[in-house]
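User: I'm writing a short report section on ligand binding and want a predicted complex to refer to. Could you take this sequence and zinc ion and write out the structure as tokens? A short remark afterwards would be nice.
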Amino acid sequence: MKLKITGGRLLDLTDGSLTPVEVLLDSAQGTVLAIGRDLAEADRTIALSGQVLLPGFIDMHVHLREPGFEDKETIATGARAAAAGGFTQIACMPNTNPPLHSPELVTFVRRQAKASGAAQVLPIACITEGQRGERLTDFEALKAAGAVALSDDGKGVQHGGLMREAMARAADVGLPICIHAEDESIAGPGVLHTGAARRLGLPEIPGEAEAAMIARDILLAEQTGVHLHVCHVSVESAVSLLRWAKARGVRVTGEVTPHHLLLTEDVITRDDAVFKVNPPLRSERDRLACLEGFLDGTLDMAATDHAPHTAAEKQQSMADSPFGMVGIETVFPLLYTHLVRTGRMTLPALVQRMSTRPAQAFGLPGGVLRVGGPADLVAVDLQREREIQPDTFLSKGRNTPFVGWRVFGFPTLTVVRGRIAYRSGEETGVHDGF
Ligand code: DOR
Ligand code: ZN
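Assistant: Sure. The structure tokens for the complex follow:
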């Protein structure tokens, strides 16, 4: 089966030029057969109208909630939402119930994902049993079952000695460690960054709770040689630490979320849990440091930390509601509109941070669109402005702080391994052989 896409414009990642092309894909092999003009006939043709063709996005930080919290999200709804956001591969965090700490659970996630027919799902397994921070899981068995990395995301590994042992073993088996950097003895029961916490009379999560653990783990990574990936960097000191570590030659990568790039604690003027996220929205100084790190590559990639929760949970007070925001369906339009259209970064640079770098950093296929490579691509509409409306999301989660924002760049077509995973205005996850 062959699928042809006409009417698109291919972005050249080296010079930013756009060239009208046709793309011919092999839906059985999942590869790109040809990119050019007047290509051979296909079994099915999709005609675009000038949308820009990009390599499918890759998000290394998503919460899919299954098993255990299917009222928030399932693997199928999350994978479809990801495809609607232009993602062809997403890595899911293990803080489910039970947590992804056994090979059987990793296999379960991969099976469910396959059935969804949407974005590919790469499971990240627990570092410790039950994410309790006490005993390490069986890294080798988890890798054999298909885990792409290890993390106790949602919680930091508090014991430095245990983390050191985890890194040594992860280095041995060749799995990256993704850290949720939060020293609980500093963060305590905090819910907001310093200024907002004071304003609302709630306990704070100081930036040092994050930076202190990153400093520890950089030193341990240097000593063990593991690939350390720092999740959701949000403070200035953490960006500086990553810059220092990279200059020293430590094998470290970092990610930043759209909310830490575009929002600060100043948006929190009342007790509204839609703004409650961990790490919390920080100061303008922190935001600018994250942006600088994202522009200069210290922060290698964007990651959404897509964290769906039910409306009832998010209607509770800041103190009682769970942490988290959804982001998978809006990250590209938000960053394109606010960073590329404003001239802060080029479109190729943004695509590097959303496709190419995550693929390189985690050794994944894709990240560039080329003949012979995986048929993972997204077509985005850079001309049309649309309002972010949570009731249009395919995710079960509606908890976005960006409701009502007007943005350009929504995906109109996402192809995963040569099969249509999303097409705007159409049912997703359902394909007739494509
Ligand atoms: O805001 C967050 N939500 N931060 C985390 O670390 C966990 C996540 C979740 O699972 O909801
Ligand atoms: Zn997370």
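A remark for your report: The domain at 2-53+372-423 is CATH 2.30.40.10 (Urease, subunit C; domain 1). The chain has two domains: 2-53+372-423, 56-362.
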